[in-house]
């Protein structure tokens, strides 16, 4: 019988306690505040990250583990008896994690071990449900090919909407040219973002923060209306008031959802979106 290990990076929204219960391996990003470095979720939680991000005037960046470090992790899983390893990486348009995982995989020369790296083309809350489903199936000794195929099917059906209270972090992260952001700020441009083809793109152009919030809510409601059974998930940075207001506006959709779950935005995504960010996913697959 195959022994299956599910692996994610910390751009997935699973926390370490739940990951341990589900037997999910988590590969953490490094978070850099100037010359100060933290390991994501190990010595800096997502909530701590946003509190620090809100106050800092230092350049904030993220980085991936080295190839050698991930090779050691894979070899450790193999020594534990795992012969099927399924890895979920956030979009390579956001980080080098996917490419690094593939480089490490190519160094594993073991004909008895199968390692697959999935480019999920997205990040954060939808990946939590995809990886969790795969992990539960693995714990229930389901066939690896079935788990792999189902994960690919679910990834094609994921979605995410994002709203920010400032475009500054998208500029700092290189996701938005500074001249465009300056013009946008002048006219109070407050767009709603999505991810398409692995990239952060504008889903809806709006002027003004109040209008942006209303349109954000409307888009979520419209997505929920299209599904008979759905999972509703939201996430915020250092944005407790906005989360409270969002839950109030979505109270009917939350009641109708077969699963409702609230997260904190992962730091690797939050670096680009900022402390005032809001995320939402409406998912129609089983969980």
Automatic annotation (TrEMBL):
This is DegV family protein. Keywords: Lipid-binding. PROSITE patterns: DEGV. PANTHER family: DEGV DOMAIN-CONTAINING PROTEIN DR_1986-RELATED (PTHR33434), FATTY ACID-BINDING PROTEIN TM_1468 (PTHR33434:SF2). It comes from the Bacteria. The keyword Thylakoid does not apply. One of its GO terms (molecular function) is lipid binding.
């Amino acid at each position: 019988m195959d022994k299956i290990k599910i692996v994610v990076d910390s751009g997935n929204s699973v926390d370490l306690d739940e990951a341990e219960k589900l037997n999910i391996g988590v590969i953490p990003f490094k978070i850099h505040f100037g010359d100060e470095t933290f390991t994501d979720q190990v010595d800096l939680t997502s909530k701590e990250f946003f509190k620090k991000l809100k106050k800092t005037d230092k350049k904030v960046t993220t980085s991936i583990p080295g190839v050698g470090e991930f090779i050691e992790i894979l070899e450790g899983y193999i020594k534990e008896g795992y012969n099927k390893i399924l890895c979920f990486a956030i979009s390579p348009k956001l980080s080098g994690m996917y490419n690094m995982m593939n480089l490490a995989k190519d160094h594993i020369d073991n004909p008895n071990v199968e390692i697959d790296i999935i480019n999920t083309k997205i990040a954060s809350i939808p990946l939590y449900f995809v990886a969790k489903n795969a992990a539960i199936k693995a714990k229930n000794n389901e066939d690896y090919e079935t788990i792999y195929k189902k994960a690919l099917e679910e990834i094609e059906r994921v979605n995410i909407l994002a709203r920010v209270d400032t475009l500054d972090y998208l500029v700092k992260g290189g996701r938005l040219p500074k001249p465009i952001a300056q013009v946008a700020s002048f006219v109070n441009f407050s767009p709603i973002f999505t991810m398409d083809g692995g990239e952060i793109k504008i889903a809806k152009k709006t002027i003004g923060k109040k209008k942006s919030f209303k349109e954000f809510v409307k888009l979520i409601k419209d997505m929920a209306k299209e599904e008979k059974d759905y999972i509703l998930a939201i996430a915020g940075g250092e944005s407790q008031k906005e989360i409270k207001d969002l839950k109030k506006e979505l109270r009917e959709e939350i009641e109708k959802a077969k699963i409702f779950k609230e997260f904190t935005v992962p730091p690797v995504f939050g670096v680009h979106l900022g402390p005032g960010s809001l995320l939402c996913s409406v998912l129609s697959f089983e969980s």
